[in-house]
């Protein structure tokens, strides 16, 4: 019994020590590079840590003295891009945590759901009403997410998103009201490192930037 309690204590102590080391690494990278670190986790490579940031994934040694940016490949059996896989998983988890989309074009029946991130100054985005209707008829629901222009005053930004966007793209306003949801959603694009408009996020967490026709999006959905 004493041995059991001793082992449990050792495990708890080790876990707390690991969390403290990860917190220290996060703070050190933030101090040195000014980058906000969302999570720190170990990789399969001893001494190499994965750092999740709003702009993607970085890698660092345990002391925070060296930082790598790029793809980590697992070539033990074929080639697996672990960085891309982790980015997809993290985006998917973030979107699943969101309570309700700002605006949505609901398909019935729904086969797929796309997230469309756009800004008010994206002319091609605001002219996609007919193309979004094609997706809706094909069973694709589209949730609209805002990319915030920090140069614009909040009242003006809110007014345009809650009146101009639904009119142009024929989106349904949520029952809760656009204003309340907009306040929750404005940070999502930044958390996912999305700045280009339009950007589509697929159900598997993959990200596609730039214009895509309905047929191209349907093919991407089928392959995801």
From TrEMBL:
- Name recorded for this polypeptide: Thiol:disulfide interchange protein DsbC
* Coiled-coil zones: none
| Signal sequence, renumbered to the chain | 1-20
Keywords recorded for this protein, A-Z: Periplasm, Signal
Note whether Signal occurs among the keywords.
yes
Give a Gene Ontology cellular component term annotated to this protein.
Answer: periplasmic space
The entry's family comment says:
Belongs to the thioredoxin family. DsbC subfamily.
Question: Which Pfam families does the UniProt record give?
Answer: DsbC_N, Thioredoxin_2
Compartment(s) of residence: Periplasm
| UniProt-listed InterPro entries | DiS-bond_isomerase_DsbC/G_N, DiS-bond_isomerase_DsbC/G_N_sf, Thiol:disulfide_interchange, Thioredoxin-like_fold, Thioredoxin-like_sf
Question: Residue limits of the Disulphide bond isomerase DsbC/G N-terminal domain?
Answer: 18-83
> Organism's domain of life?
Bacteria
Q: In terms of one coarse class, where is the protein primarily found?
A: periplasm
Q: Start and end of every Thioredoxin-like fold domain?
A: 111-221
């Amino acid at each position: 019994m004493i041995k059991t309690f001793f082992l449990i204590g050792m495990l708890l102590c080790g876990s707390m020590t690991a969390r403290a080391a990860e917190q220290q690494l996060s703070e050190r990278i933030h101090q040195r590079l000014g980058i906000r670190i969302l999570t720190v986790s170990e990789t399969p490579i001893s001494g190499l840590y994965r750092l999740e940031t709003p702009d993607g994934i970085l890698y660092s040694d345990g002391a925070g003295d060296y930082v790598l940016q790029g793809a980590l490949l697992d070539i033990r059996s074929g080639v697996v891009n672990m960085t891309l896989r982790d980015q997809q998983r993290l985006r998917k988890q973030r979107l699943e945590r969101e309570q309700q989309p700002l605006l949505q074009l609901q398909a019935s029946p729904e086969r797929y759901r796309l997230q469309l991130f756009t800004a008010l100054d994206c002319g091609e985005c605001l002219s996609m009403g007919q193309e979004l209707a094609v997706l809706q008829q094909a069973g694709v629901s589209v949730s609209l997410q805002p990319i915030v222009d920090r140069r614009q005053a909040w009242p003006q930004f809110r007014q345009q998103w809650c009146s101009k966007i639904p009119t142009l793209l024929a989106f349904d306003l949520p029952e809760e009201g656009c204003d309340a949801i907009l306040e929750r959603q404005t940070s999502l694009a930044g958390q996912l490192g999305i700045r280009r408009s339009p950007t589509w996020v697929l159900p598997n967490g993959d990200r596609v930037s730039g214009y895509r026709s309905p047929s191209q999006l349907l093919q991407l959905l089928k392959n995801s």
